[in-house]
Specification:
Length: about 80
Amino acid sequence: MEKNPKTIGPKEGFGAGVVALGVLLILMPSIAQQIADLDFVESEAFAILTGSVLVLAIFTIIAGIAIFFTKFEES
Protein backbone atom coordinates (compact mmCIF):
# COMPACT_ATOMS: atom_id res chain seq x y z
CA MET A 1 0.00 0.00 0.00
CA GLU A 2 1.45 3.37 -1.04
CA LYS A 3 1.04 6.38 1.16
CA ASN A 4 -0.16 9.49 -0.59
CA PRO A 5 1.38 12.65 0.84
CA LYS A 6 -1.19 14.92 2.43
CA THR A 7 -1.28 18.46 1.16
CA ILE A 8 -3.19 21.45 2.35
CA GLY A 9 -5.76 22.57 -0.16
CA PRO A 10 -8.17 25.47 -0.47
CA LYS A 11 -10.76 23.78 1.76
CA GLU A 12 -8.31 23.64 4.67
CA GLY A 13 -7.19 27.19 3.95
CA PHE A 14 -10.76 28.46 4.16
CA GLY A 15 -11.25 26.53 7.40
CA ALA A 16 -8.15 28.13 8.90
CA GLY A 17 -9.38 31.54 7.76
CA VAL A 18 -12.73 31.08 9.47
CA VAL A 19 -10.99 30.00 12.68
CA ALA A 20 -8.74 33.09 12.47
CA LEU A 21 -11.79 35.34 12.03
CA GLY A 22 -13.34 33.73 15.11
CA VAL A 23 -10.21 34.35 17.17
CA LEU A 24 -10.17 37.98 16.04
CA LEU A 25 -13.81 38.36 17.07
CA ILE A 26 -13.06 36.95 20.52
CA LEU A 27 -10.07 39.23 21.11
CA MET A 28 -11.40 42.46 19.55
CA PRO A 29 -13.20 44.02 22.57
CA SER A 30 -10.20 43.56 24.86
CA ILE A 31 -7.71 44.88 22.32
CA ALA A 32 -9.93 47.88 21.49
CA GLN A 33 -10.02 48.83 25.18
CA GLN A 34 -6.25 48.44 25.50
CA ILE A 35 -5.74 50.72 22.48
CA ALA A 36 -8.17 53.30 23.89
CA ASP A 37 -6.28 53.29 27.22
CA LEU A 38 -3.04 54.41 25.55
CA ASP A 39 -2.06 57.98 26.47
CA PHE A 40 -1.58 59.20 22.89
CA VAL A 41 -4.92 57.84 21.61
CA GLU A 42 -7.78 60.32 21.84
CA SER A 43 -10.53 57.92 20.76
CA GLU A 44 -13.01 55.85 22.72
CA ALA A 45 -13.02 52.06 22.71
CA PHE A 46 -16.43 52.05 21.01
CA ALA A 47 -15.13 53.92 17.96
CA ILE A 48 -12.10 51.63 17.70
CA LEU A 49 -14.28 48.55 18.05
CA THR A 50 -16.73 49.81 15.43
CA GLY A 51 -13.95 50.37 12.91
CA SER A 52 -12.48 46.94 13.64
CA VAL A 53 -15.84 45.24 13.13
CA LEU A 54 -16.32 47.01 9.80
CA VAL A 55 -12.89 45.87 8.56
CA LEU A 56 -13.57 42.32 9.74
CA ALA A 57 -16.94 42.37 7.97
CA ILE A 58 -15.23 43.35 4.71
CA PHE A 59 -12.76 40.45 5.12
CA THR A 60 -15.65 38.06 5.78
CA ILE A 61 -17.54 39.24 2.68
CA ILE A 62 -14.42 38.81 0.54
CA ALA A 63 -13.90 35.30 1.96
CA GLY A 64 -17.52 34.41 1.20
CA ILE A 65 -17.19 35.62 -2.38
CA ALA A 66 -13.98 33.61 -2.76
CA ILE A 67 -15.77 30.47 -1.55
CA PHE A 68 -18.50 31.01 -4.17
CA PHE A 69 -15.96 31.04 -6.99
CA THR A 70 -13.67 28.27 -5.72
CA LYS A 71 -14.08 24.82 -7.19
CA PHE A 72 -13.18 22.08 -4.73
CA GLU A 73 -11.98 18.71 -5.95
CA GLU A 74 -13.63 15.71 -4.36
CA SER A 75 -11.06 13.45 -2.73
